[in-house]
Amino acid sequence: MNGIKHVCIVGIGLIGGSIGLALKEYSPGIVVIGHVRNAPAGSRAIELGIVDMAEQEPAAAVSQADVVFLASPPAAIKDNLQQIAPFLKPGCLVTDVASTKMSIMKWAEAYLPAAVDFVGGHPMAGKEVSGMEAAEAGLFNGCTYCLVPGKDCSDHGSDLAEGLARGLGGRPLFLTAEEHDEAVAGISHLPLVLASILVRATTDHRKWELMSQLAASGYRDSTRLALQHPAMNRDICLTNGDMIKVWLDTISEEIARFRELIDRGDPGALERAFEEAGRARRTWWEGYAKKSPR
After folding, report:
1. Are residues 20 and 119 in the same domain?
2. What is the dihedral sign for C-alpha 191, 197, 203, 207?
3. Which end of the chain is more exposed for a tag (fewer CB within 10 A), N or C?
4. CB burial of residue 175 (10 Å; 0-12, 13-18, 19+)
5. Are 167 and 196 part of one and the same domain?
6. Which of 119, 149, 175 is the C-terminal boundary of a domain?
7. Computed over its alpha carbons, how large is the radius of gyration of the chain?
8. Domain match, 102 and 243 both
9. How many CB atoms lie within 10 A of CB 115?
């Protein structure tokens, strides 16, 4: 992270707060500025050691920044880009951490000045809880950190983004916005939608009072993602809806296949279907466990 003196984080929640803590721990010489909505939020971010100072006005927050992290919900990033664009210094790197990329890359191209580099980012890390109180410096350790350079991004900007991803503890992976959004729709966005569907279907059932007494670790693990921030989930669906719908259609086909197997009452076919799923899940997990220290 040589040459970086000031970093601004726009949005001090779980991810933005964790970036601040990681920067303070791994690169203590960097001055971290938080762009916050109100004074109490800024004071709390300073108390938690996430930022060195907090500003409510865009000009004061970003004018000195060598790097700006946009850590707001996906839909808010459009406004963030418009607000900070006039005050960015030439050579500044702007990056984000949102879980959708195609819309954000278009907004960055439309609103940022030519003298600024933009690299879309998405660390594949998080928790089911939100807010700066849940932030932790090691949140990104070992995670895949997706990077999508803008159309006119310089080599310096791409290299800087890669260095930051590594400095935060992540494993950089360069890909296109389309590749990112299609893949993440299946392995991240689809699970959160399905978790919410499962919760709604079961808690609305007339027997929920009894079911709630029986629900244990299986239900807990299957529904964990329903606890994610509602506004974040809303924005994910609004900015990556086409990809999510494709995966929902695929799930509908799988549901129909399992329903048919149950209707047939064929024990061998049912067992093979579960064996295939279990084998695929174990293969993925073994590979993931080798790459991640978590």
Report:
1. yes
2. negative
3. C
4. middle
5. no
6. 175
7. 21
8. no
9. 11
Q: Is residue 238 part of a domain?
A: yes
Dig out the tokens for 89 from the structure. Answer: 């210094």
Token code pair at residue 243: 């990809």
- Statement: the pTM of the whole predicted model exceeds 0.85: yes
User: DSSP labels for 231-260?
Assistant: HHHHHHHHHSHHHHHHHHHHHHHHHHHHHH
In a domain, 1, yes or no: no
Domain that holds residue 212: 180-291
User: Do 67 and 160 meet the contact criterion of CB atoms below 8 Å apart?
Assistant: yes
Amino acid at 228: Q
Query: d(Cα 189, Cα 248) in Å, to the nearest integer?
Result: 10
pLDDT string in tens for the chain (294-residue length): 668 999 999 999 999 999 999 999 988 899 999 999 999 999 999 999 999 999 999 999 999 999 999 999 898 999 999 999 999 999 999 999 999 999 999 999 999 999 999 999 999 998 878 899 999 999 999 999 999 999 999 999 999 999 999 999 999 999 999 999 999 999 999 999 999 999 999 999 999 999 999 999 999 999 999 998 898 899 999 999 999 999 999 999 999 999 999 999 999 999 999 999 999 999 999 988 777 654
